[in-house]
Specification:
alpha+beta, single chain, 2 domains, 6-stranded antiparallel β-sheet, about 240 residues, Extracellular Endonuclease, Chain A
Length: about 240
């Protein structure tokens, strides 16, 4: 009888030890996943008040937070990754974030993305006002040249030609050129800023930070206006008209 009790106690201790060991493994795995996959903010989490921004005049961008990105120290320590926030209940993009390195950059040409229709995308042409006529582009939040992500609805917004070429392109090229030149990593985030239930964003918050040199090579935090000179946009629906 005593021997049976001893064996039973040993089995119980063994099961407890196994359970504790498995719990430790699960905690370590969860911690590792969070470390390598930091959360992506939604459009409601932008760390500034859009209402306080100056109205667009002539500059395609506005510097935010003294040009210092809002990344946490934890985000700066992660390995290479790319994450795209889920579309919200109105079908709008949220935020896209990546730790970009050379290995992530595409070697192939960009493919067709016309099957993607971002929220508020209404085809409109103004041949005498816009270089290629079309008001809207399917704008990548994180540029194709950085991550090779192409026909992904979670990475494409309705953006004006002006936003795409005059606002975002300069900063995308800046980050891409730095990565190619140095082989270092750039932490990059693009967050569309919507007002209320608008289907077209008012602009995009772009943040970038070069990791290996602590921001010495790349560090910016800018808001790119989603406007088009000479055009009035109804951000609620995506409809547009010529300015009077």
């Amino acid at each position: 009888m005593a021997r049976g009790i001893i064996i039973s106690v040993k089995k119980k201790k063994y099961r407890t030890a196994c359970a504790d060991f498995l719990l430790v493994i699960l905690v370590l795995c969860a911690s590792l996943w969070l470390y390598t996959h930091p959360p992506v903010s939604s459009h409601t989490d932008v760390p500034f008040d859009y209402a306080q921004l100056p109205a667009w005049e002539n500059d395609p961008v506005c510097v935010i937070n003294d040009n210092i990105p809002y990344f946490t120290e934890e985000e700066k320590q992660a390995e290479e990754y790319e994450r795209y926030g889920k579309l919200d209940s109105l079908g709008r993009c949220t935020a896209a974030q990546a730790m970009v390195g050379r290995d992530m950059m595409p070697q192939e040409e960009r493919a067709d993305i016309s099957e993607i229709r971002p929220s508020g995308f209404i085809g409109a042409k103004y041949d005498d006002l816009i270089e290629d006529g079309f008001l809207y582009n399917r704008c990548h939040l994180i540029a194709f040249e950085l991550t090779g992500e192409n026909a992904n609805a979670e990475n494409l917004i309705t953006g004006t030609r002006y936003l795409n070429t005059e606002g975002m392109l300069y900063y995308e090229n800046l980050a891409a050129s730095y990565i190619r030149r140095t082989g270092n990593h750039v932490l990059y985030r693009a967050t569309p800023v919507f007002v209320s239930s608008d289907l077209v964003c008012r602009g995009v918050l772009l943040e970038a930070y070069s990791v290996e040199d602590d921001g010495g090579g790349i560090s910016f935090c800018v808001f790119c206006y989603n406007v088009q000179p000479g055009i009035v946009i109804d951000y609620r629906t995506g409809a547009s008209r010529r300015a009077s």
